[in-house]
Amino acid sequence: MYRDALVEGTFDPGNELVALCDSNASRLALAAAPVPDRNGTAVGRYDADDFERMIAERRPDVVIVTTPDYVHDVYIARALRAGCDVITEKPMTIDLARLKGIVDAQRETGRSVTVTFNYRYIPAHTQLKDILLTGAIGEITAVDFRWYLDRVHGADYFRRWHRQKDKSGGLLVHKATHHFDLVNWWVASHPDTISALGSRRFYVPSTAEALGLSGHGERCHTCPVGALCPYRLDVEGDPELKSLYLDAEQADGYIRDRCIFSSEITIEDTMQVQVGYANGVSMNYTLCAYSPWEGYEIVFYGTDGELNHRHVGVHGIFGGTRHDADDSATTTLLHRHGEEPKQVDVLSGEGDHGGGDPVMLDELLNPAPSNDRYRRRSSHLDGAWSVLTGIASNVSMERGQTVKIAELLTDAGIRL
């Protein structure tokens, strides 16, 4: 996404992609292939071990970090200390020690860190923010938020590096960072207390047995019962997956199609969190990663009414067949006390993530100062408060008790 936006100059032709850096030479070559020479100079290609040399030779203004989550902090801190600003994918990081490293590096250098929370830029989400800012439901008191991942999208987190909590922080960090950031932004506060429960109930070996998949392998490509599995990922039959992963395995041994029923998985697939915010708002949050449909529902409760938003992304999921929902699958209902419920005409946009990506890219890649009244651009502080809900949830699940975020920050020596 970032490469194409920079190369095509859609948002600002003055931007230049000067280098690409990756740990896998095959994928690095694939990433560089579409980038044309500029003034007779090819885009720089660097191994991950040559990160500092890349900075010294190419002298970028901004480094965009799109690595796996557990090394975000490494490249963010190194880029900041090399004199660059940083744009990073979500989540900003996955645990307290890594968070401290980023916060310390930012404070030491004064450089900026922008976290790409594209969900803020989805027109329907910005519309919800606008409605809440008008005071249409009075003072916000509580939130119910339920997120459903289907058995295609949801299953994919259990094939890759995401399935190890020490690499992703689990879905309450990797995936729900979007959702927790949205609520922080919508209610204009940050989390204070967290209580969470979570378990792995579906992506387990016993599900494979129930499906008649006894003797399954550790990856789809060579699985002896793969032809019987409704969740099989065919990395050889998909040209893009083949080139990005199967053909690139010899470079680093990374396997893209691991079995989703493996006993080695350490993340949860069923999670519920209760959050108390600094301004008194409370939230109940649920994330299910094996739902028969994909989408989300959110209800804001206020002193003057309720605001309800529901989005159905996909209908009828099983065995890799996904049927996209139509435009009517997104609804917003405003119900003020003493009035009839009112259907709101939901705003939409063109482009990925509900039209949010182009809006976000325009702000990220445009040098003109933004006058965004919704304050959608996210700093390292927004990134920190977002991941802290998930990090504290993990601590709560481990300890079996409610956790105060202020105490976690004090114990970790983190000052926000």
Textual characterization of the structure:
Strands 6, 7, 8, 9, 10, 11, 12, 13, 14 and 15 form a ten-stranded mixed β-sheet that branches. Strands 3-4-5 form a three-stranded parallel β-sheet. It has a two-stranded parallel ribbon with strand order 1-2. Helix content is about 35%, strand content about 25%. Helix 5 (about 95-110) packs antiparallel against helix 15. The protein contains 16 helices and 15 strands. Helix 2 links the parallel strand 1 and strand 2. The chain has about 425 residues and is an alpha/beta fold.
Shape: globular
List segments where confidence is low: pLDDT < 50 over at least 5 consecutive residues.
316-320
Which structural class do you get from the secondary structure elements? Answer: alpha/beta
What is the total tally of β strands? 15
What percentage of amino acids are in beta strands? 15-25%
Distance between the termini: 31 Å
Count of DSSP H/I helices: 16
Question: Sheet bearing the most strands, described?
Answer: 10 strands, mixed
Radius of gyration: 22 Å
Overall mean confidence score, pLDDT: 94
